Amino acid sequence: MIIHPISPVFDRDSRVLILGSFPSVKSREAGFFYGHSQNRFWKVTAAVFGEDVPRTIEEKRAFLLRNHIAVWDVIHSCEIEGSSDASIRDVVANDLRVILDAATIEAIYVNGKTALKYYEKYIQPTIHRPATCLPSTSPANAAWSTERLVAEWKRVRIDR
Length: 160
What we know:
3-stranded antiparallel β-sheet; Uracil-DNA Glycosylase, subunit E; 4-stranded parallel β-sheet; 160 residues; alpha/beta; 19% strand; single chain
């Protein structure tokens, strides 16, 4: 069983919550979300907000908070082989009340279909809030160009 090692990023001004499924090996090693160099999350969200791509953990945290974005993952702990979403089993979900009780979250998004699957199974029944699924920024989602991702991900800005 691997326990999620990264604390959520949020403050009382967060308005949008973006949830992944579970951090990759690279993210767990880096100690921060979307730590794999090929994951397009930072490139896409920076383009959405018209900012430079943040590089350091401190820059990434500041970018999220400045743009009123909270980030966490659906899964608190699970069995997983490497970074393979397909291998996830024995899921224990994160308790989103940590964020939802502290911030006025207006919209919840999930980064890809795996996050949506586990959100709908474990979290939505307890908090009774739907999540909007955005196409995954993972390098495994090669069918989506960065430009297409940016166009879809603009919803995190426009929907507010």
